[in-house]
Amino acid sequence: MLQLKFKQPDSAPLTLTYSLDHLSALTEIEQTGKILFYDFGLYEIDKSRMKVDRMAYPEAELIVVHKKRDTRKQRRCLVTANIVSWQGSKPLNDPESSAKPSYCRLVLHYLEWLAAVEELATLDEKRRLKLTTKHMIATILLTISFNTFKYGSVHLLLCNGFFFPQKRKQTTDRYRNEIEVIVNELERNVVNRLRELKVCEEEYVLLKLVLLFSHSESLGEKHTETTRRLHGKYDQILLHYVKHSQGNCSVEELIDRISSLFELLTSLNSISEMAELCLVHIVALDIAGMRGKLTFDLHLRQHQ
Fold first, then answer.
1. Which of 34, 58, 82 is the last residue of a domain?
2. pLDDT tens column, 201-241
3. Per the database record, which ranges form the NR LBD domain (predicted)?
4. H helix or E strand, kind and range, residue 272
5. What is the pTM (predicted TM-score) of this model?
């Protein structure tokens, strides 16, 4: 059996127990009335040695408890992990020491969400990886933007308690200035629009799915048709949801809202192109210690 213990601020830890034989099927856990998506396969647990791959989940701690066995004499283990915190308490004044941990945690958060998207399994591994990496930055930008709005923060939130201060220091550093431009664009064109529209969590999740299955021409004819179908599916679900959740609105108001939601994706794709180009240079030059196997594979390998 696998026992998972999630730390929760100001409350008792949430502990869940599952069979090791069904790890790949576990994609949902319920915590404080919300559904959070985790694929415990991301821990890359080796059943023979009972280890956690710290590259995949650096915050995880694995303890093998040999003396506790069930009727099948299966090993038990305990994994403790911190759920992403969106409570901004520390300004990002020292990106050299904070950028890489925050980046890796956001990437992991994205991968954990992807694990719950069952339709990805219809693609082969190569095309699944291509689709995953293509929309990673735009989806992460949407995630931090929505949580900035959701938690009522006046600052753009990162995970691990960090936020971008509104009054940032002037610098001659080219890459810091580029990041400043990206942050300003995100605040103006995405976060502010989320506030104006009062986007709900259901709309947010559906927007992420529409984004994930868009622009897939490079996947090959068979898989392109699959992703087009899935893109259309989530388009229609979003349209249906908006129509029924905004029951008191006129047709014109519904059309305006739907158009505004899709305009958010256009803005995100544009900003993500700037962010991706910036990350390519940052990783290539190992700025703030950002060069590593994960960042190389995500941002540089395609340019070799």
1. 82
2. 999 999 999 999 986 555 555 557 888 888 999 999 999 99
3. 45-301
4. helix 251-284
5. 0.69
